[in-house]
Specification:
Radius of gyration: 22 Å
Number of strands: 7
Shape: globular
Helix content: 40-55%
Structural class: mainly alpha
Largest sheet: 3 strands, antiparallel
Distance between the termini: 22 Å
Oligomer: single chain
Amino acid sequence: MHDLRRQALESGKTVSRKARSKNTTPASSRPNSAPSSRAASRSRAVSRAGSDEEENGNLSDETSFSTNSIDELLNGEVTDPVTDAWRSDLADRIAELIDRKRSSVQGRERCLATYVRILTSQYAEEELRGKEAELVVAFLKSIKAETSEKETILAIKAIAMTVVTSPSDLIYEAVCGPLKRIISDSASVPSKAAAVHCLGTSTFFGGASDDEILDNMAYLLEIVASDGAFIEAQDEPEPVIAALEEWGSLSTLIDDLADESEEAAEYFVEQLSSSDPGVQIAAGENIALLYEKSYRPLTEDDGAIDLNEDDIVSDPDEIPGVPKLVKKHTVYRRTDVLKDTLSELASHNNRRISKKELKSVRTNFADILDSVEYPTHGPRYQNAINHETGQRYGSRLSVRIHKEGVMKIDKWWKLHRLQALRRVLQSGFVTHYETNPVVFESLP
């Protein structure tokens, strides 16, 4: 059984090839092919942010890897009554999935849907223990056969739920190839997108090495750079959004992105001109993350180093306890042009999209622009003064854990991990955060 990627999750980071090469001989890795040229994505609006007053959406679809608005994501809780009946039901479904004899497509679809629904709403590591390998083999049979789109996507989602519930060193090795074959060869765009998300989840939790994480980030970037053409999904926004989102999630495991940042930023900036709001927002959130990760806190030891004053950033609001930051590397060499683009998107007025989507674009890009200008600012940063403390509110994004606890999302890396977990767990996120150590340790 895997150690829950404890070292990576507790520190939140690993080290890229460049950083490792300074100290050790780097391990061998899979070759990366050069990214293809891009084209404009067709419009398929995906709303990712909204107001605090919006109603919670229905996120219980067993085939879904999407999230609604950020605020809906943060406020959703599981309302299903908790009984022990699910244990026997899950045991029956596991036996049925492993056996597969005389099963029909419809029967497998129902069985997979029940399996995913139970694992979403309950933490079932004990019930899965020792059965992970057999289950993954069964899921891969459904994926390789692609008998129906629904069965394929349900089997893909079942792998993701299995690896989040009971991480194993062997899962990534077993599923990486079949998932990439679906991504490249499937005629179903939804299946491709689901497989991209599952690849990200399996890489994060399924025992992938540091080099494999970086290789898959390069693979995902090729999908983005080519607008899906790399996987025979030219101008299809769904797999491009999935690739952007999973690239951002995996990058939170990497400490030094100096080698990857500039190339990735070029492609993300290009995607800001997409006609699809979901593509634009996912690319923008990755840009904000890259800028956040390109700085580090100024320390006392830096006094002995001849630092360029232009590379030192102070908190513009002078909030007590917020350290000065030092620039580690360049993300994008035309930052002024980028700021102009982000500013235009923050005041976007596209009548071809809905009011809710328009609000999502404006809200997100106001946050992204703020973080590019002031890397000390996280998502949803507010300059308003709290009259009780006399200080600025700062980042006001938080997760309510029922009525008792609040988890502050004041960094872009935290938001990326939250969204990645929420895409898999849907309305079961709070339950898993409270009971599943894998989820809890992902968001310290």
